[in-house]
Amino acid sequence: MIQIIGRFLRVLIFVAVLAPSAFSQEAETYVPDTETLTWKSYASEIRQRTIEDRKQGISYVISGAVAYLGGWTGAEMIKDPIEKGAYNIIQTVGLASLSYGIYTWKVGDKDRQLFKTMLHSDFLTQKQKTDFLRLYYTEQKARDETLRWMRVAAHGLIGLQNIYSATRQENGTLQSVFYFVGGINILASASLVFSF
Q: What's the number of domains the chain is made of?
């Protein structure tokens, strides 16, 4: 029974720790130099990023579909309920990847939405658009810095809590899981401290 729980926890840890990083957009936030930013340079950058979003979105759709079909096929071929559960988790991750790909391809991020809004704001001059963008991204930088420190604290506390739980756990398998999850979160916290 402990071995079954151990296998299930390994799959769960993989999904909980590694899968969300595939969907994280914060690492690729657009941060222009507000001193040299102009409406023309911004429009060019966002148009280029829209092309890249399309490629990345299609890539997520394809890999998500392959993961889903692989998980579905595996679940249909296996009799063991624990292994079926693992394949069902793979299907879920595949569907999440597929959905994220469509979103990235068709909708994009808030910068694309801002660009579309400003593109159709014919009542604003190019200078007014530039002034607005400089102010907006100055505020965005301050917000991003606050969020970074909030993540440092959250990952650090989660890591410390899991390491503390490991020291209180008598079951060796669960103790290893707690140490692993704690270590991953401490590393995530440290990596965010040194982000530039």
A: 2
45 and 78 share one domain: yes
- Residue 50: CB atoms within 10 A of its CB come to 16
89 and 139 both lie in a single domain: no
CA distance 115 to 43: 7
Query: For residue 184, which phi and psi values (nearest 5 degrees)?
Result: -60, -45
The backbone region for 108, taken as left when phi is positive above 0, alpha when psi lies in -120 to 50, beta otherwise, is left
Quick count: other Cβ atoms within 10 Å of Cβ 87? 20
Q: Give the residue from 33, 29, 37 showing the smallest Cα distance to 112.
A: 29
Residue 124 DSSP one-character state: S
Between the CA atoms of 100, 104, 110 and 115, what dihedral angle is there, to the nearest 10 degrees?
A: -170
Backbone angles phi, psi at 130, to 5 degrees: -65, -45
Closest CA to 86 of 103, 105, 72: 72
Look at residue 119 and tell me if it is in a domain: no
Q: Say which residue the tokens 């069902």 belong to.
A: 88
Contact 64, 97 (CB under 8 A): yes
Domain housing 107: 1-113
pLDDT digits (tens, 9 = 90+) for 47-100: 999 999 999 999 999 999 999 999 999 989 988 888 888 899 999 999 999 999
